[in-house]
User: Fold this.
Amino acid sequence: MHIINCRHLTKIYAPDTHALNDVSLKINKGEYISITGKSGSGKSMLLNIIGLLEAPTDGELYVGETLVHNMKESQLTTIRNQEIGYIFQSFFLDGAYSVYKNVEMPLLIAGVKRRERKERVLECLHKVDLLDKIHTQAKNLSGGQQQRVSIARALVNTPNIILADEPCGNLDSQNTENIMKIFDTLHREGKTIILVTHSQEEADRAYRKIQMKDGKIITDETK
Ligand SMILES: Nc1ncnc2c1ncn2[C@@H]1O[C@H](COP(=O)(O)OP(=O)(O)O)[C@@H](O)[C@H]1O
Ligand SMILES: [Mg+2]
Assistant:
């Protein structure tokens, strides 16, 4: 069984505008996949549909055995919160909140008890090497640090699937390397990772490389 199975996904905005054009893709648990392609080729749209942030116009998506189709919003919210960790180029942290509060947020939404929340936040901040910034307001961190906070937040509910949309797009090469090393570790730990990137160097670190063009997958190679 595949952890993600996309069947003939299509997303149309206007007549003749296919953001996605009949994309089928099966992903096994634990795969580390990169997606590259020119701007506008449909990378974010595919990631957002897999991440249940957008609905396709046509086609089917299975997450595990579950057909994500006509699912109630409350069920979608639970899958998003429990099964998927999201990492975006622009972090989406709450700048006024401490690092701790930002990482704790998904646990509050999931209704996890205070003591366990603390354990898990500390564990995830340790993973991204930010325990020393725990009380700092997010807005006072560097870009690289903010992205590591957002990774800790993505991991805190122990999701099986990590979706990252150009996570290093705003970072210098040292910070990019820090983030890519975290992905290497997550891959070794068995997470399923999909990384959208403009950088060939980053894409090459994945074990399966997908290239998109005009809303379609044009190459799909496994190392
Ligand atoms: N909300 C939207 N309304 C209209 N067109 C959109 C919208 N979102 C994306 N598109 C179009 O869908 C195509 C794919 O976009 P996207 O997935 O963001 O590309 P990428 O991430 O590869 O740069 C583009 O042609 C884009 O203009
Ligand atoms: Mg994009």
Q: What stands out?
A: The helical segments are 43-50, 73-83, 99-110, 114-127, 143-155, 173-188, 200-203. The chain has seven helices and ten strands. The CA atoms of residues 71 and 77 lie 10 Å apart.
